[in-house]
Write a structure and sequence with these properties.
This protein has one domain: Ribonucleoside hydrolase-like (Inosine-uridine Nucleoside N-ribohydrolase, Chain A), CATH 3.90.245. The chain is built from eleven helices and ten strands. Helices cover 36% and strands 18% of the residues. The strands form two sheets. Strands 2-1-3-4-5-10-8-9 form an eight-stranded mixed β-sheet, sandwiched between helices. A two-stranded antiparallel sheet has the order 6-7. Strand 3, helix 4 and strand 4 form a beta-alpha-beta unit. The longest helix has 16 residues. With 313 residues, it is of the alpha/beta class. Helix 1 runs antiparallel to helix 9, helix 4 crosses helix 6 and helix 8 packs antiparallel against helix 9. It binds alpha-D-ribofuranose and calcium ion (CA). The site of alpha-D-ribofuranose has 16 residues, from helix 1, helix 5 and helix 10.
Length: 313
């Protein structure tokens, strides 16, 4: 049987504990060809996102993947970070050897613009940090909107935030960028906080990872630190759910169509993703986003364990 042509993919991220697990999953799967990783200021300053991306590629044996130079602040405002949530460096208590691998000289947005032109109608983007790089790319290369097949994000929430009552971090950190992306016309999929809260990784699954090879053990330590703080409810790993959805959309047991926009000016609602659910029987408006709403949690956990095991060989 002819081998399926791989789908060209760029991963935009701010590693980041859950970004790290998502990166392991994507570096192990064989449905997408990762053209590059575009780090962005997010959980920690850009320097951490870039260095962590380089180190994670090396740990996974994927030095072949280019890591680009991303945005150090929001498009129209100062950069925001998530403080100590991901530890001092962004990888919790995990310490990895300094990277041998170097950053590419090309800026993230130029790379995105160039790859979209090289893969018109095929390029997909997994964005699991603030959307600054993508927004700059869209502002600099307006033709991008007709070239990128879809953008899958971890971000937002239908009825809640985590940085404020309204703002989920990836959207809240650069709401202007998020609005530019949601309004671009590129089909979106959104893994928001509600489904993230369902897709938790439990202590026994952490133990299975810790019993594995180098990548599995690092994933086990990253997830385990969160699980230990969860009071037995399991570790929330938002970005890993977005990776799982790209690899196997069937991991989501319920999704719905919506028109999603982003509040950028509200004093207490800045960074809120505002979704109008579109019911097919009354489709009075074209949806721009597939919202992931429920997940098969055990399937997610098994995907993480098996994909990390694959990287460990
Ligand atoms: O709100 C969770 C999101 O913000 C995740 O992507 C996490 O890595 C942080 O970037
Ligand atoms: Ca992230």
């Amino acid at each position: 049987m002819a081998e399926l042509k791989k789908i060209p993919l760029i991963i935009d991220c701010d590693p980041g504990v859950d970004d790290a697990v998502a990166l392991f999953m994507m570096m192990a799967q064989d449905r997408y060809e990762i053209l590059g990783i575009t780090p962005v200021n997010g959980n920690k300053p850009l320097e951490n996102s870039e260095k962590n991306s380089l180190m994670l590629c090396e740990l996974a044996g994927r030095e072949d993947i280019p890591v680009l130079h991303g945005a150090h602040k929001a498009v129209f405002a100062e950069g925001r970070t998530a403080g100590a949530i991901h530890g001092a460096t962004g990888l919790g208590g995990v310490v990895l050897p300094d990277p041998r691998k170097q950053l590419e000289k090309e800026y993230a947005w130029d790379f995105i613009g160039r790859k979209a032109k090289e893969h018109p109608g095929e390029l997909e983007i997994l964005a699991i940090g603030p959307l600054t790089n993508l927004a700059i790319a869209l502002l600099k290369y307006p033709e991008l909107a007709g070239q990128v097949k879809r953008i899958v994000i971890m971000g937002g929430g239908i009825s809640t935030g985590n940085m404020t009552a309204s703002g989920e971090f990836n959207i809240w950190a650069d709401a202007d960028a998020a609005r530019i992306v949601f309004r671009s016309g590129i089909p979106m999929a959104m893994i928001g906080l509600e489904v993230c809260n369902e897709g938790r990784i439990m202590a026994d699954e952490v133990a299975a990872l810790k019993a594995g090879g180098p990548v599995s053990r690092v994933a086990g330590q990253l997830i385990g630190e969160r699980e230990e703080r969860s009071g037995g409810k399991g570790a929330v790993l938002c970005d890993a759910l977005a990776a799982a959805y790209m690899i196997d959309p069937g991991v989501m047991t319920e999704v719905f169509d919506a028109v999603v926009d982003v509040e950028t000016g509200g004093f207490i609602t800045e960074g809120r993703t505002v979704a109008k659910r579109i019911y097919r029987e009354f489709a009075d408006e074209k949806a721009n986003t597939v919202v992931c709403w429920h997940i098969d949690r055990p399937k997610l956990a098994e995907m993480i364990i098996q994909l990390c095991k694959k990287l460990d060989g």
